[in-house]
Amino acid sequence: MAQLIPTNIITGFLGVGKTTAITHLLRHKPEAEVWSVLVNEFGEIGIDGAMLKSINSHVREVPGGCICCVAGLPMKIALNMMIATTKPDRILIEPTGLGHPAEIINTLTGEYYDSVLDLRATLTLIDPRKLADQRYSENPNFQDQLAVADVLVANKTDLCDAQDKENFNQLVQSFVPPKQASYWVEQGQLQHEWLGSERTDHQLQHPQHHASNRLNPKRELFNAAATLPAGQDFIRRQNQGQNFYSCGWLFRPEWQFDFNFLFLLLSGLTFIRAKAVMRTSQGVYVFNSENGVLSVNQLDQSLAQDIPDSRIELIDDKPIDADTFEQQLLTIKIP
Questions:
Q1: Which residue in 49, 105, 151, 255 has the most C-beta neighbors within 10 A?
Q2: Three-state DSSP class for 294?
Q3: CATH label, 227-331, candidates 3.20.20.120, 3.90.1150.10, 3.30.1220.10, 3.90.78.10
Q4: Largest CA distance in the chain
Q5: 217-230 confidence digits (pLDDT tens)
Q6: 81 Cβ partners below 8 Å, 6+ apart?
Q7: pLDDT digits (tens, 9 = 90+) for 239-279
Q8: Cis omega (within 30 of 0) on the bond before 177?
């Protein structure tokens, strides 16, 4: 009988550091093992997949909404293809920060997958600084992510103060029955052994607010990450749901952008989230902005050659002026 594939869901709200945490796990996995990652993003372009591919991981993307919509069809297609092509020793699933992991768990423990996958602990990442903000703590998605958690992980703790830690400790103590474990980490430094924790049967129900973020029907059927049509210099795709908006761009591989002007442009953003993997005058860089705080990392040359294009995604709780931002990007493109 074939051995079941250990599988974990790594969830958490927008900007909590899920991709950073998965990157850390991949860089410290057993060398002989093949790990595959299923990435879901609210935006249509798909940035997290490009970031994870830069560390030579096996990644399949489901952009454009919550992967558990439409009876899990987008997720099932992507997951089946990933298992068939990569034959992984472990699978990590990163749902969008605006998704509902309860439905993912129901799918993965249902018919067929119960004979293929060994679904282990769900790790929910939390930014303790946000626990005092009701827009965060009372968000239905955040509450869903807490409900399904087997392990709670406080991330970005190097930016937290004593009150933030107390708020996290109070949250951990509030669960009855208690969660299996909780941890306090910096920069997404999850430990491999945490993935082996047992999954708890949470008696999950289908969330009523879930239907408000359906995918576009063509996206549901084809389940493809964005690609640039022949003859086009760039594409722009937009999405909205659950009172959030996204807008993303993908540019042809030959295009480069002036690094200094790009840095200035992205430093001035006030969107809730902005992510980019861009070919610049100084190399390939990953830009990551959360509520106006920007981090920048250059990819090694050996990794940069695997990045096929430049792409950027914006997410906000207000409509995005895409035309103005697009013109700013085109202005700083190197002729």
A1: 49
A2: strand
A3: 3.30.1220.10
A4: 60
A5: 333 333 345 678 88
A6: 60
A7: 887 778 889 999 998 999 999 999 999 998 889 889 899 99
A8: yes
